[in-house]
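Hi R.,

As promised on Friday, here is the backbone we talked about, encoded as structure tokens. Could you run it through your design pipeline when you get a chance and send me back a sequence?
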């Protein structure tokens, strides 16, 4: 169940009613990073307590560095210390780090308790909160430990984006651009036409992108129950992107890494004769229009990036596979795998082209 509406946090008591109706539990734990807790966790906690419903607010430090097994364990211990048992529900309130980390916690806590997801960042609203993927990073790579776990409800208040910085909004924009490239040529044109409105954070335009993004993701995930490989499309730009995040020790954010990944993977498609140069240029121009850099920092080593990709989830027999975009909105099916092996030399050449001069 998904509820998208502007202004829900203006009346947190109503939000509580909606959460309780979906989870029907006796105890609640709102888990949030420290930044989101101050802005939205505290008012929600107060509204629960005002209604006489048992609720706790549990926090962890903001940022990707917290998406670890260690943080999960600390949060689990806090939940036990507060006496939360099987009749409790967990509310993941925050960006993609929170929905991934707390979703994984809810999936395993007391062998699984109801999860309510309230994404607060644009990235989480268009992508991370949908599709049920949860997990944490470890020293071997991104999102390598986790599971699929669907929330009972996903609640989005578009108005709370007003406290997110443009840099954070751009994180989500990269995923919207990805949806446009792989499946939605009309969305691509919309992004070209409405760049000024998006960049000035007009709420109705962002709301349109949230509807487009969430619907696209949900549709692909549903279809993947019949055509398993189709979910790989959502990974366009991520084979390179996840490796870059790890190799840069998360100094590159998810969005920054995926934007570079999209251009490197497009370059691979050009070199294989799958994508025409003019399509590559349209994609490059869109990133430029939004002021999103797609250049690889000079400090990163191709060797390390190549090594990290071995553990990518699409890898087969230790070799990474890549989504092949032919045109805006059209990808190669590749025997319903929607990705394919590419000669290592071509991947290295494509990476080298994207380095900062
Ligand atoms: N599970 C999936 O399918 C999926 C898909 C895409 C990305 N992800 C994951 O999402 C993560 C990145 O998500 P993110 O960019 O949201 O990072 P994040 O959760 O760290 O949020 C970014 C920053 O924005 C702050 N913030 C969030 N909402 C805010 C608001 N409304 N106002 C003010 N500040 C706010 C947070 O406190 C944080 O400091 C990565 O770990 C990535 O792997 C998961």
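Update: got your reply. Pasting your designed sequence below so it's all in one thread:
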């Amino acid at each position: 169940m998904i509820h998208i509406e502007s202004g829900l946090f203006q009346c947190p008591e109503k939000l509580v009613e909606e959460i309780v109706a979906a989870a029907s539990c006796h105890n609640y734990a709102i888990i949030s990073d420290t930044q989101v807790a101050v802005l939205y966790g505290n008012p929600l906690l107060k509204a629960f307590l005002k209604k006489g419903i048992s609720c706790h607010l549990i926090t962890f430090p903001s940022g990707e560095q917290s998406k670890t097994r260690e943080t999960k364990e600390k949060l689990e211990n806090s939940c036990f210390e507060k006496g939360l048992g099987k009749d409790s529900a967990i509310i993941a309130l925050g960006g993609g780090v929170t929905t991934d980390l707390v979703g994984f916690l809810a999936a395993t806590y007391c062998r699984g308790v109801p999860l309510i997801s309230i994404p607060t960042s644009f990235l989480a609203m268009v992508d991370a909160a949908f599709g049920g993927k949860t997990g944490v990073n470890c020293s071997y790579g991104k999102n390598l430990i986790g599971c699929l776990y669907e929330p009972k409800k996903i609640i989005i208040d578009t108005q709370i984006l007003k406290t997110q910085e443009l840099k954070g909004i751009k994180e989500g924009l990269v995923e919207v651009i990805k949806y446009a490239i792989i499946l939605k040529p009309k969305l691509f044109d919309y992004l070209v036409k409405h760049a000024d409105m998006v960049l000035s954070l007009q709420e109705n335009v962002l709301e349109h992108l949230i509807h487009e993004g969430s619907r696209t993701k949900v549709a692909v995930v549903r279809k993947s129950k019949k055509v398993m490989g189709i979910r790989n499309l959502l990974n366009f730009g991520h084979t390179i992107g996840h490796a870059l995040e790890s190799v840069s020790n998360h100094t590159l954010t998810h969005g920054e890494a995926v934007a570079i990944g999209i251009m490197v993977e497009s370059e691979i498609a050009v070199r294989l004769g799958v994508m025409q140069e003019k399509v590559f240029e349209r994609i490059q121009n869109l990133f430029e229009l939004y002021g999103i850099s797609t250049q690889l920092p000079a400090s990163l080593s191709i060797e390390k990036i190549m090594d990290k990709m071995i553990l990518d989830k699409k890898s087969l027999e230790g070799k990474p596979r890549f989504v092949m975009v032919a045109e805006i909105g059209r990808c190669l099916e590749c025997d319903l795998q929607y990705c394919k092996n590419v000669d290592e030399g071509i991947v290295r050449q494509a990476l080298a082209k994207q380095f900062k001069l």
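One thing I noticed while checking it: The CA atoms of residues 56 and 262 lie 40 Å apart.

Thanks again,
M.
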